[in-house]
Amino acid sequence: MGGMGQFEHQQQGARPEEADPRLPPGQRTQRGWPVLHYGPVPRFKPLTWQFQVFGATASGEKQSWDHERFCALPRITVHGDLHCVTRFSMLDNEWSGVATRTVLELAPPAPDVTHVMVWAEYGYSSNLRLADFADERSLFATHRGGEPLTVEHGFPVRLIVPQLYAWKGPKWVRAVEYMRADRRGFWEERGYHNLGDPWQEQRYSYQERPGDGPEL
Ligand SMILES: Nc1nc2c(c(=O)[nH]1)N[C@H]1C(S)=C(S)[C@@H](COP(=O)(O)O)O[C@H]1N2
Ligand SMILES: [Mo]
């Protein structure tokens, strides 16, 4: 009987959370979807909203889309996890929206661009290596699980980069800046790690090694 009980226990999948291979070190899963950000929730203004690409573009010109044109861009669906540095993770979300690769194709960077800064409402920003930004699973998400994002979760557009901590994915994105050198974004200037790989537990800037980021 004892053996049977153990079998049933395993059948129910009651394994310790730490054993879930999708959870990076020091993370736990979270019931529901918490809302987490610095500052107020911006109001969406459809008439003036633009998604802009600027900085070191290949053409030297800025490019921008209004909301209607942005929503008409080709779309992808990605299954990705969200790992907050405060240690909660949400596994296997279905995100849909516009691939970062689509933006890179339509508004190409100059050949010597190495990093991007993604800008949100109220000046929130995060810097990414071009390779992380251009990953095939990175997208400007407009929907999760087939439902449009709520305004608290970033409507109309948020960046999702599943392989990095979630602060690297600004909600309420308004612009992408192409850069020829790295520069720290909002949290990267305020104590968080410049790279933010959850699998290496790159949480705080004091953990950075030479070459991980610009001088603080
Ligand atoms: N504009 C903006 N985007 C942001 C943040 C923020 O403070 N401002 N916080 C980030 C952090 S730390 C996390 S964990 C996620 C949380 O997303 P959620 O509120 O949809 O769970 O948003 C990220 N994007
Ligand atoms: Mo976070």
TrEMBL record:
Region (Disordered): 1-33
Chain ranges of the Oxidoreductase molybdopterin-binding domain: 39-187
A matching Pfam family: Oxidored_molyb
Highest taxon, organism lineage: Bacteria
Gene3D superfamilies linked: Oxidoreductase, molybdopterin-binding domain (3.90.420.10)
SUPFAM superfamilies: Oxidoreductase molybdopterin-binding domain
InterPro entries in UniProt: OxRdtase_Mopterin-bd_dom, OxRdtase_Mopterin-bd_sf
PANTHER family per UniProt: OXIDOREDUCTASE MOLYBDOPTERIN-BINDING DOMAIN-CONTAINING PROTEIN, PROTEIN-METHIONINE-SULFOXIDE REDUCTASE
Name under which the protein is recorded: Sulfite oxidase-like oxidoreductase
Organism: Peterkaempfera bronchialis
